[in-house]
Amino acid sequence: MEHLIIPKNYQSQLNLHDTQIAIKTVKDFFQNLLSLRLNLSRVSAPLFVDPDSGLNDNLNGVERPVTFTIKEQNERKAEVVHSLAKWKRYALKHYDFKEGEGLYTDMNAIRRDEIADNIHSIFVDQWDWEKVIAKKDRSMETLKDTVRTVYKCLRKTEKYMAIQYDYIEEILPHDIFFITTQELEDMFPENTPKEREYYITKAKGAVCILQIGDVLESGERHDGRAPDYDDWSLNADILVYYPVLDIALELSSMGIRVDKAALLSQLDKAGCPERAKLPFQKAIIDGKLPYTIGGGIGQSRICMFFLRKAHIGEVQSSLWPEDMCKAAADAGIQLL
């Protein structure tokens, strides 16, 4: 049970029935506020894509997608999405969204190689969102302004939930702290990337870590990023300190998307220049897709955080290792 944290004297403040009501309360309030503040329209999205389209998110490049064949289409192969990071940019073009307009959708995925623990599940549910921007707005200023907007939505959601439920206290700081991965390495050179995230997030309460994916001065990467959607110089993760588990909890990942120059450079750095020939990547190179900014926000993650739950399985249904289920039940953690 090395992957399970059991908080001392933990007890959920809501039973299973009331938890379901609270989950809807969190989701309804947050997504309505986010769509208003970022000017996003809700759209439908695919659960699976053609692997030859180049539309699936290959995450760190090692995770295996869930695949199946379609009998009626001569056993055509399909992949369950890992995320909609690339599909969203195509959709903005296909649905004729204009500059300053964006979309959001429920993204459900199966990540079969995920290691289950308090905050990770093989089932991923998030709001994927994407917005059209001008070329001149591919800047750090645009990224930071968007991060601040998303963070304000998180703070207002916490305030709203604290009004609805007496046991919830506001813990998010007024402002989010910005730091690059290189600055973080310089600050904690002897620590691992995850340790650095923990120390800075515990100290600041809410942190935006910038520029993830490229090699740092140490020769190591802070974390892996697919080379063909985020611009590694213009992306970010939002993390908050979560006292229930004493961890840094990532709630959102976002970034300004690659243009032609960034795409070709990052494909080369990642050792997969052949991906430039795939339809989605070729559309970027040929200038057929809009400039965009977008991201994903974990639905179960924010429900877990705002409801002060100890395990993500308290706010989503998934499959867990048997020993984890037993240990959770013995500790009074009710998995759905």
UniProtKB/TrEMBL annotation:
Domain Aminoacyl-transfer RNA synthetases class-II family profile: start-end pairs: 26-321
Keyword NAD: no
First-tier enzyme category under EC: ligase
Protein name: Aspartate--ammonia ligase
SUPFAM superfamilies hit by this protein: Class II aaRS and biotin synthetases
InterPro entries per record: aa-tRNA-synth_II (IPR006195), aa-tRNA-synth_II/BPL/LPL (IPR045864), AsnA (IPR004618)
Annotated transmembrane regions: none
Subcellular location: Cytoplasm
Gene that encodes the chain: asnA
